[in-house]
Amino acid sequence: MPGFTPGRRWQPAYIPFKKETFGNRVLETVEYMVKGPLFGCRMCGNCLLQETAFICPMECPKGLRNGPCGGSTSERCYVDPTRPCIWYKIYDRAFRMNRQEMLLEVLPPLDWEKTGTETWGDVTRQVKKVGVRKFVSGIFSNDKEKREENWQSVFEPVRQPEWWQGDREYHAPAYEEPVSELERRLKAGEFVVTSEVAPPATVATKKLKENIELIKPYVTAINFTDCPSAAARMSSWACSTIAIGEGAEPVMQIAARDRTRVGLQAEILGSNALGIRNVLCLSGDSMVLAPPPRGRMDIVDLDAVQMLWLLRRIRDTGKYLDGRPMKFPPKYFLGAAASPFASEPHFQALREEKKVNAGAQFFQTNLVYDADGLEKWLNELAKRNVLDKVYVLVGITPLKSYTMARYMNDEVPGVFIPDALLARMKDAGDNASEEGVQIALELIEKVRKLQGVSGFHLMPVNWESVVPRIVTEAGLLPKGFVAPEPKEDKVLA
Length: 493
Ligand code: SF4
Hints:
This protein is α/β, with parallel strands linked by helices. The chain has 17 helices and 8 strands. Strand 2 (221-224), helix 8 (236-245) and strand 3 form a beta-alpha-beta unit. The longest helix is centred in the N-terminal third of the chain and has 18 residues, at 22-39. It is globular and about 80 Å long. The structure holds iron/sulfur cluster.
């Protein structure tokens, strides 16, 4: 185990893509020999240790550089249960060292021309630029702020290349007029409902269209998941385009797991040209959940926070990541996933604040079964002044059976079902699906009164037919709701 990184082992270090000069190779070897045993360094070429409480984040098997995924716990990493969640360890140490605010800085993705190369040379060059004497005297300054400023004058330019320039600040959207109906309603203060529809696992679209038709009148927008559990299905943008054709407003989900920086930018332009205006950025379920044979599990080109940062900048500055100007930039309402029951509420709140700073305008949360636990998380968000910058849609999934409830609680990362609800589902026997609906309705009733809740996000898990009932019985019908005609009438017409 490395000296200062509480991980289980070192993952292999990156090697430079191109042949390096002899001098550089010597420097790389020395850096690796020092930082390897101390931090489990993988030679990512852009050291973040200062920002991550001196724990190297490159041990995260999802390759996340900006915080934990929604499955983070104090116990084990869900991707590799033989090691701890390294991001839990980072947050825990950062809070103990009072360095937690440093975790807000939006850190850049890897520069693959630099991976495997040394970072000490960059630091030395920057020290020379600042002035060696000035830097050394700054280290010994009695003024804490000056010391911090001095430190940042060297390490920030090294850490934040010109093409990224991430920071810890909130960046409000640079537009006024809502770009989608979902945004319009939320801005108008309406309580909204969105719902998921599962994309088909074939090219047949009949069932997909039927489900869209069924729930469309009851919700403001429909989410199309992006290969949940890392199992291939019809793409979210294709389903979203079909939904637009059916007169429904989609929320296109994009999982970082399957994107590169080029692919993401291309997809966002294409989907925007097709009329898609709501985009939800996620890390995505790990490949470890996928049916074998599995793809790479330890790498993402961009994580969800980086996706938000990049997409917000494209929209608000009209520039690609590489700086090329765009004549007609895309318009979209940016969302992110939030996970109230992963790790600790105050850890999660910091992570959600980072997403909001990066560009998230709305959250759709993971499944919620515990109103009190949700309230704790909301209170933490309020303490961080996040609730007035983001709309929170609380995730609700009606349970269909006791087996499903057990599976959700025991196997799905970031989901917690209180024992009392598990017992209700068990005792309900053959009536379990009805009990599941009642539990969902009770939760909605409790949660809708909590501060900062702007609506609900229903995730019916292939039970789309329950959506109209839940929305109606919970009294959540949208403004101007028009009941759909009974099917028989339509056929006769
Ligand atoms: S952040 Fe990168 S350079 Fe720093 S210790 Fe980890 S792998 Fe090494």
